[in-house]
Amino acid sequence: MRAAVWLPLFDELADPLVVGRLGALAEEAGWDGLFVWDQLWWREPIQAVADPWITLAAVACATERLRIGPMVTPVARRRPVKLVKETATLDVLSGGRLTLGVGLGSDRFAGEYSRTGETVDDRVRAEQLDESLGILKAGWSGEPVVHDGQHYRVDDVRLLPRPAQGQVPIWVAGFPGNLKPIRRAAQYDGFFPVNLSSADELAAATGRLREIFEQDALPEGFDVVVALEPEMDPQAFEAAGATWGLTDVDPTTMRLADVRAMIAAGPQW
């Protein structure tokens, strides 16, 4: 199971230069990846919140090996053609190290949809997510994109440059007990079950994935990503099918000095 740092870009970490230096430290300490939250704002006592794409660009420039990406981007909050350009450009900048985490997002944590006049209907945001993912895949191909959907329209446009990888890996987030995001994830490159309570819950989710793939093991290259709190046993989650473990940092108690020390200590699994 590979190990990644997962950082909320809040307050002391709302500075791209600081996070870029943390990326360099993580690479030196042997971590495999660095992923960041994608939020516009957060609840008190959090005050400052940085943009994930500018921050990831700083990390890309400060590192050579780390896998990087937003974890996760609420795609319905973004115009899909703009997201094609952002992801492709960042992938070129990083030399092909971007992984795109995607999900529906939620209004309940910070009101990011309702307070900006966007839909809070999960069904509508799921439709927007699926349409956007189709546009992303088509846009990354370098071929003209023609899309006339319920929510978005793209009229015969080539969106160059292409990502350095050709296609950026997509990890789909969702609650492990909800079959819809699991089915969506099976169409892409990985599944990030959020709010996991146990390794048994993860094992049930990976079992559903195997049923969808109709095989005894998950396909080679398909990732299962878990957020690990300090008291969780990494080996149990790896045995349940996890291929990536992300450090779960509490944003309300997080301090830069503690984050730096945790990163410098290197992966614990």
Describe the structure.
GO terms for molecular function: alkanesulfonate monooxygenase activity. InterPro entries: Luciferase-like_dom, Luciferase-like_sf, SsuD_RutA_monooxygenase. Residues 21-232 form the Luciferase-like domain. Keywords: Flavoprotein, FMN, Monooxygenase, Oxidoreductase. It holds the Pfam family Bac_luciferase. The protein is 36% helix and 18% strand. It is built from eight helices and eleven strands. The mean pLDDT is 96. It has helices at 16-29, 52-62, 80-94, 122-140, 179-185, 199-213, 234-239, 256-264, and strands at residues 2-7, 33-36, 67-70, 73-74, 100-103, 145-148, 153-157, 170-174, 190-193, 223-228, 244-247. A hairpin with a 4-residue loop joins strand 6 (145-148) and strand 7 (153-157). The longest helix is centred in the middle third of the chain and has 19 residues, at 122-140. The strands form two sheets. Strands 3-2-1-11-10-9-8-5-4 form a nine-stranded parallel β-sheet. It has a two-stranded antiparallel sheet with strand order 6-7. 42% of the residues are buried. The protein has one domain: TIM Barrel. With 269 residues, it is of the alpha/beta class. Helix 1 (16-29) crosses helix 2 (52-62) and helix 2 runs parallel beside helix 3.
How is the secondary structure organized here?
Layout lengths: L1 E6 L8 H14 L3 E4 L15 H11 L4 E4 L2 E2 L5 H15 L5 E4 L18 H19 L4 E4 L4 E5 L12 E5 L4 H7 L4 E4 L5 H15 L9 E6 L5 H6 L4 E4 L8 H9 L5
Parallel strand pairs: 1-2, 1-11, 2-3, 4-5, 5-8, 8-9, 9-10, 10-11
Antiparallel strand pairs: 6-7
Helix pairs in contact: 1-2, 2-3, 3-4
Protein name: LLM class flavin-dependent oxidoreductase
GO molecular function, one term: alkanesulfonate monooxygenase activity
Organism: Kribbella albertanoniae
